[in-house]
Write a structure and sequence with these properties.
The complex is a heterodimer.
Chain A (H helix, E strand, L loop, with lengths): L1 E9 L4 H11 L4 E8 L5 E9 L2 H12 L4 E7 L4 E12 L2 H13 L3 E5 L3 E8 L1 H11 L4 E6 L3 E4 L15
Antiparallel strand pairs in A: 1-3, 1-4, 2-3, 5-7, 5-8, 5-9, 6-7
Chain B lengths: L1 E4 H11 L4 E4 L6 H9 L4 E4 L3 H15 L3 E5 L3 H4 L2 H10 L3 E7 L15 H4 L6 E4 L6 H13 L5 E7 H5 L1 E4 L18 H12 L4 E5 L2 H4 L3 H11 L3 E3 L24 H9 L2 E5 L5 H4 L10 E6 L13 E4 L2 H17 L6 H13 L13 H12 L4 E5 L3 H9 L8 E2 L10 H11 L4 E7 H7 L2 H7 L5 E6 L4 H10 L16 H7 L3 E5 L2 H14 L3 E6 L26 H6 L1
Parallel strand pairs in B: 2-3, 2-4, 4-5, 5-7, 6-7, 9-10, 9-11, 11-12, 12-13, 14-15, 14-16, 16-17, 17-19, 18-19
Antiparallel strand pairs in B: 1-8
Helix pairs in contact in B: 1-2, 1-7, 3-5, 3-18, 9-14, 11-14, 12-15, 16-17, 16-23
The chains are: A alpha+beta, B alpha/beta.
């Protein structure tokens, strides 16, 4: 089962390394990871996508929580959170195929960020599932390069207070 | 506030923390700090002969005293030599502050002479680490280091200080509080959980208190005793928990796990309520986890939430300081007893019966002394005294667990989690520095002895006398035992010999007293001489080469599938 964790950390040297080392050492796999600043100066958010059982998830959360630079760990429950990801995709596109590809990207809310004689680079933002679909539709055209940021997410404004804090064991 | 160099600020910070002794070795990148020592400090420095020794000394100091152990070393190899003690302290939750020199800031990342990314190397085995960027950060970083090492679950931290940071100036002010918004160890226990645990425990027919090292770290031995006595609950202490409960007490019932006696493992595995107190269901305790204590409801008391349900699902988790948790649990259990919940007297009687039925046993002496007998002699000569016993790792360690009777908290110091051979001698020196009034004995193996024997010099020259009782069987005994039991007796590179080195002469070369014991009659006089000498001494006890440590739960087997000592046929025939 896949889970998205949102980890608020102090923006200190080694904070990310400590988290990724902990995952490696305890044998947990990270599917995707994105790091960036937040509304609070000096605080970064690490968004982690992990594939594990519920029992492992609790272990992961508790182990992360013990790290000195970690301020908060939250699991983003699928129904209660918005999740987005950015994709850049370079696809082969001879002039006669361009219009079709651009129409597809437009349908996904994407746009052209570079146009060459035989390839187009698209930028698409959406849920990871939407990006998967877009990727599939482009595949027959010949994908030259693809890169995704890894998902980021936050709890919906309506459920902000009920965002699940896993750490409260006691 | 006064103007000073970073190196001086390190010492002023240690003084402000009340550190009375540190263990280390100087080298290039830490020279400014050592120069500051030469200019004066109240902190005693014990000069080790290897940084690993310094680290284990700091561990021994911490375990004997309950205070933080401090080790100091230079960059590169000095720092990497501390990695084993740091890993050891991590596994056994020993509070340790390691201070390492680092190459000058502008050289970091250039593969400079004696450069090593020690904060990177140690990341998986420290609670936290700091690479100090500016001299002004030294006081608050050290304040945080001591705070993190000792709060929540104890453990090691590392502070890496580049040489130029030690040389730069700052206005020194030691903070009285830390600013660590992400570090919030549990400060109190939940009363509902305590009540639930007490109800379950007080009504159990076959309860067991499974007591680990967290009880010692949490300074909760008195509260543990209170709980055991008010509830009349049997106490089984792990290797790390040994000495948390007086082993002469009628409610103490041995040690669990791989080399624990059968009666202890029977009690652990057939109990109906198992209370884990600062213990972590280590594989050496549980054997095959799925078969461990199958009928038990588990109450788990720990300061570290991550230990709860890590390996064994806890039915009643209690997270928080053990001192408080045990005190409140004792109070609640007492209420239940008062209201008529009966003490488990039949169960206590049953375990006592098992103890009679399945005692620890070993064979009769033949060509050599039996190692178990040597430890029994040591025990009878020191019983009742203020003695701290340290050990290395292996057969002798397990025999020490079985035959040393620990009466006072922090009187048995061993490497449990990491299983670090060579731990015993330096840990003994550290313990002696912490408790100079105590007699400190290292029960060591010949394999372990050779890994850190150079620290005998430290014991002699720093006037920290220890007595090493060498269980010399001429083999890497535990590996030999495994080869004999599980590898069809193919002995592969385990023979060390009884005679080379000549341990007594080696001890003499180090300035210590050395005595070789070959026969039964020589043992007691030799031990008495060593203990009375007031000097560092090595008593080389040449013991049976083929003695195996029993009982034994084979790795991966269920606890109750233990292999017991069997009398050889010729012995049986003789009777």
């Amino acid at each position: 089962m896949k889970h998205t964790l949102s980890v608020m950390v102090e923006d200190k040297p080694g904070a990310l390394a400590r988290i990724s080392t902990m995952f490696a050492r305890r044998g947990f796999n990270i599917d995707s990871l994105a790091v960036g600043p937040t509304e609070r100066p000096g605080v970064s958010c690490i968004s982690l996508r992990v594939d594990c059982e519920q029992h492992s998830l609790e272990q992961i959360e508790k182990q992360i929580h013990k790290l000195v630079n970690v301020l908060r760990v939250t699991e983003l429950a699928p129904g209660d959170a918005v999740e987005r990801e950015l994709l850049l995709l370079k696809v082969s596109a001879t002039p006669d195929r361009r219009a079709e590809l651009i129409a597809t990207a437009t349908a996904f809310g994407g746009r052209v960020v570079d146009l060459g004689p035989d390839a187009v680079v698209f930028e698409v933002t959406g849920t990871p599932e939407e990006l998967d679909s877009f990727h599939e539709l482009c595949r027959p055209h010949g994908i030259q390069e693809l890169i995704r940021t890894g998902r980021i997410g936050m709890s919906r404004s309506s459920t902000k207070l009920s965002a699940k804090r896993l750490s409260a064991i006691n | 506030m006064s103007r000073m160099r970073g190196a001086d600020a390190i010492l002023r910070s240690l003084e402000a923390e009340g550190v009375d002794v540190m263990f280390g070795i100087p080298g290039g990148a830490i020279m400014p700090a050592y120069d500051a020592m030469a200019r004066g400090t109240t902190v005693r420095h014990v000069l080790a002969r290897h940084e690993q020794g310094a680290g284990h000394m700091a561990e021994g100091y911490a375990r004997a005293s309950g205070r933080v152990g401090v080790a100091i070393a230079t960059s590169g190899p000095g720092a990497t030599n501390l990695v084993t003690p740091i890993a050891d302290a991590w596994m056994d939750s020993t509070p340790l502050v390691c201070i390492t020199g680092q190459v000058r800031s502008f050289l970091i990342g250039t593969d400079a002479f004696q450069e090593c990314d020690i904060t990177g190397v140690t990341m998986p085995i420290v609670k936290h680490s700091w690479l100090v960027q500016e001299a002004k950060d030294i006081p608050h970083v050290l304040k945080e280091a001591f705070h993190v090492a000792t709060t929540g679950r104890c453990g090691p931290v590392l502070v890496d200080v580049p040489r130029d940071v030690q040389e730069a100036e700052l206005d020194f002010h030691y903070p009285d509080r830390v600013d660590l918004p992400g570090w919030r160890p549990p400060a109190k226990v939940h009363p509902l959980q305590i009540r639930e645990a007490a109800r379950m425990l007080a009504h159990a027919e076959k309860p067991v208190l499974y007591v680990g090292g967290g009880t010692l770290n949490g300074d909760a031995c008195g509260e543990l005793r209170e709980l055991a006595e008010v509830g009349r609950l049997p106490v089984i202490t792990t290797l790390m928990g040994k000495s948390a409960f007086p082993e002469t007490h009628e409610l103490h019932f041995g040690w669990p796990g791989m080399h624990g006696p059968k009666w202890s493992n029977l009690a652990m595995n057939t109990c109906d309520v198992l209370v884990a107190v600062g213990a972590r269901f280590d594989d050496r305790v549980t054997g095959k986890l799925s078969a461990f204590a199958p009928g038990a409801t588990v109450i788990h008391l720990d300061i570290d939430a991550a230990e709860i349900s890590k390996l064994r699902e806890a039915d009643v988790p209690v997270v928080g300081p053990l001192k408080q948790a045990l005190a409140e649990l004792a109070r609640e259990v007492a209420k239940h007893r008062h209201e008529g919940a009966p003490a488990p007297d039949a169960w206590l009687h049953k375990i006592a019966e098992w103890r009679e039925e399945f005692p620890l046993r070993y064979g009769a002496r033949r060509d050599f002394m039996k190692p178990q007998w040597v430890i029994q002699q040591l025990q009878s000569l020191t019983a009742g005294d203020d003695v701290i016993v340290t050990t290395g790792v292996g057969q002798h360690q397990m025999w020490a667990m079985q035959y040393v009777v620990s009466e006072r908290p922090r009187s048995f110091i061993t490497s449990g989690g990491l299983g670090t051979m060579g731990y015993g001698i330096p840990a003994a020196i550290g313990a002696k520095a912490a408790r100079p009034e105590a007699t400190v004995v290292c029960v060591d193996g010949d394999g372990c002895f050779q890994m850190t024997a150079q620290e005998l010099v430290t014991a002699v020259l720093e006037d920290l006398p220890i007595v090493v009782v060498l269980i010399n069987n001429g083999y890497l005994g535990m590996v030999q035992q495994w080869q004999d039991m599980f590898f069809d007796g193919r002995r592969s590179h385990v023979h060390l010999t009884h005679q080379v080195p000549d341990y007594a002469r080696l001890a003499e070369a180090y300035g210590a007293l050395g005595i070789t014991v070959d026969s039964d009659e020589e043992l007691a006089p030799a031990l008495e001489e060593a203990l009375a000498s007031g000097r560092t001494a090595v008593v080389d006890c040449r013991v049976d080469q083929s003695e195996q440590c029993f009982p034994m739960i084979p790795a991966g087997a269920a606890a109750l599938e233990m292999v017991e000592y069997e009398e050889p046929e010729e012995e049986r025939a003789r009777q």
